[in-house]
Amino acid sequence: MLTIGAKYMDAIEALKTRSSAVKIGEPGPPDDVIATALEAGARAPDHGMLRPWKFIVVRGPALDRLGDAFARALEIREPGTSAAELERAKQKIFRAPVNIIVAATVEPDHPKIAEIEQVVSAGAAAQYITLSLHAQGFGCRWRTGVAAYDATVKAALGLKVHDHIVGFLYVGTALSVTPEHTRADHRGFTEVWNSEAGGEQS
Ligand SMILES: Cc1cc2nc3c(=O)[nH]c(=O)nc-3n(C[C@H](O)[C@H](O)[C@H](O)COP(=O)(O)O)c2cc1C
């Protein structure tokens, strides 16, 4: 929840309160909110300054085009899929008013920067975008699914086959979010090493 009178949430508050939206509705974020989120995305750590990112904002009638690409991809993957199933695949994109696709536009054979580092950088960008949207009062759900790995979908987005779609960010007004009681306690998977001797406690 944004503090009344404040435009942006404090960074630590944003980090500690971010949750994925479960149900997302109208309105979607206005252009300036999206621009701020993308600006944050472009601050992602980036080994070698390769800028291995592509952000594609899809909204309004363009969602229809992306939905068609989902359906076409399913038809190619699974010939004979019923018209109803294809329509269901298409409709998935309408679960939020705005979709921000974050892709890793990698150099697979870069001599110094391993491909995984480029993908991780795009993942960090996706998370910065997500967090920035939350700090500005909007909800987001990061999704992948088979469409993220599909060559037809990549082509429709102007991506190369070896690029990676790291996420479809479904963005809008959060109508419900992940329940708080499901949060992990970091102490369950953290060790703090303080001594030379070892035998650390988590
Ligand atoms: C790379 C990646 C892909 C994901 N793909 C999906 C997905 O396809 N469908 C889904 O419901 N959640 C997906 N999630 C998980 C949600 O975005 C979300 O993180 C999860 O439901 C936990 O909620 P929280 O973010 O509030 O902790 C994905 C997360 C990541 C990091």
Name some characteristics of this structure:
five-stranded antiparallel sheet, 19% strand, 202 residues, globular, binds flavin mononucleotide, 6 helices, NADH Oxidase, alpha+beta
Describe what this molecule looks like in 3D.
The chain has helices at residues 11-17, 31-41, 62-77, 83-91, 115-135, 151-156; strands spanning 21-25, 53-59, 98-104, 139-143, 164-177. Strands 1, 2, 3, 4 and 5 form a five-stranded antiparallel sheet that branches. It has six helices and five strands; from the N terminus they run αβαβααβαβαβ. It is α+β, with helices and mostly antiparallel strands. The protein has a domain at 19-59 and 94-179: NADH Oxidase, CATH 3.40.109. Helices cover 35% and strands 19% of the residues. α2 (31-41) runs antiparallel to α5 (115-135). The mean pLDDT is 95. The chain is globular. Flavin mononucleotide (FMN) binds at residues 19-20, 141-145, 167, 178.
Secondary structure topology:
Layout: H1 11-17, E1 21-25, H2 31-41, E2 53-59, H3 62-77, H4 83-91, E3 98-104, H5 115-135, E4 139-143, H6 151-156, E5 164-177
Antiparallel strand pairs: 1-5, 2-3, 3-5, 4-5
Helix pairs in contact: 1-5, 2-5, 3-4
Mean pLDDT: 95
Approximate helicity band: 25-40%
Please state the CA-atom Rg, rounded to the nearest Å: 19 Å
Sheet of most strands: 5 strands, antiparallel
Structural class: alpha+beta
Q: Architecture of the domain at 19-59 and 94-179 in CATH?
A: 3-Layer(aba) Sandwich
Q: What is the CATH T-level topology of the domain at 19-59 and 94-179?
A: NADH Oxidase
Our count of helices gives 6
Q: Give the terminus-to-terminus CA distance.
A: 32 Å
Say which CATH homologous superfamily of the domain at 19-59 and 94-179 is assigned: NADH Oxidase
Poorly predicted regions: none
Count of β-strands: 5
Taken as a percent bin, the fraction of beta residues is: 15-25%
Enumerate the distinct ligands: flavin mononucleotide
Bulk shape? globular
SSE arrangement, N to C: HEHEHHEHEHE
Question: What's the CATH class of the domain at 19-59 and 94-179, please?
Answer: Alpha Beta
